[in-house]
Amino acid sequence: MRLGIIGAGGWGTALAVLLAEEGHTVDLWAREQEVTDEINTCRTNETFLEGVFVPENVLATCDMERVIEMNQVLLIPVPAQHMRSVIRKARPHLTRKHVLIHAAKGIEDGSLMRMSEVIEQELPAEIANNVGVISGPSHAEEVARRVPTAVVAASCHMPVAKLAQEALMCSTFRVYTSSDITGVELGGALKNVIALATGVSDGLGFGDNTRAAIMTRGIAEIVRLGAALGANPMTFAGLSGMGDVIVTCMSMLSRNRRAGMAIARGKSVDKILSSTSMVVEGITTTKAAVALSKRFNVEMPIASTLYAVLFEGLDPRKAVEDLMLRMPVPETRLKFEHIKDSSDFQPGSL
Predict the structure, then answer these.
(1) Which of 45, 82, 296, 347 has the most CB atoms in a 10 Å sphere around its CB?
(2) pLDDT-based confidence at 146, cuts 50/70/90?
């Protein structure tokens, strides 16, 4: 199979390495000429994925038109806040034959749109129907090293999800399918908010108890917002939900967790964002999550308190105290009538 990847950051490069090692030919579009030259000449991408060899059957280019014309299946692992501009650049070259599988984990600032909504808004209907997402606990560094990984491919149109499954699944990369693209996209985006919060906790020197509490109650917030936006709550018990929360909140490979630790130690948001070429999606997604929670009248105390730390100068230790002393409430408040369709989640399916 020949596949195109639009975006040569860490995740795009890792997917290119994975597919190339499985024998596929990969056309990889990079925005930066120096990244293209390094991949084609040195077979490395030290800027975005240090220490990884890129196989010869990965062909890097700055010519997006060529990548699109050469490939029917296009993976789009670009940061959420760049998705719209990349799709606009790609739009003149796309036809109804193309299938677009994005791999971004964020919500667009301002519009508060999920990535599939952004893509669909920018494309004609006959192309917009061919949009899906892959998401789940998948550090690029580990995927490139062929560490066994499981993700979920989702689309409103199941043939698209199944095509992604067929194209990507191999001995070290297991792909499940889902029709709940809303839930899968929200889980992948909102887990970054929780990872930032656990990073703040870790940076303050708190322990496993605190981290576990933030992760668990964070999932409860994700479920509440997801249900309000029409997602199936059971999705968040899967890979793009619980799985992604676990990996980003526990691993030092998580940029969002490391950013939270830096915040707790007094580093400003501006300094964090300017000190790395990598994107910390959770910072922008925290703003979007709080805005969505207000729009849909959903209680999200962790996200709201984190917002106050990031953007309003709230002291992190005072933030933890505020969360601990909130009004006592029952643990479980989500009612089963929020679940709109459980047909994809039969017993034993997870």
Answers:
(1) 45
(2) very high
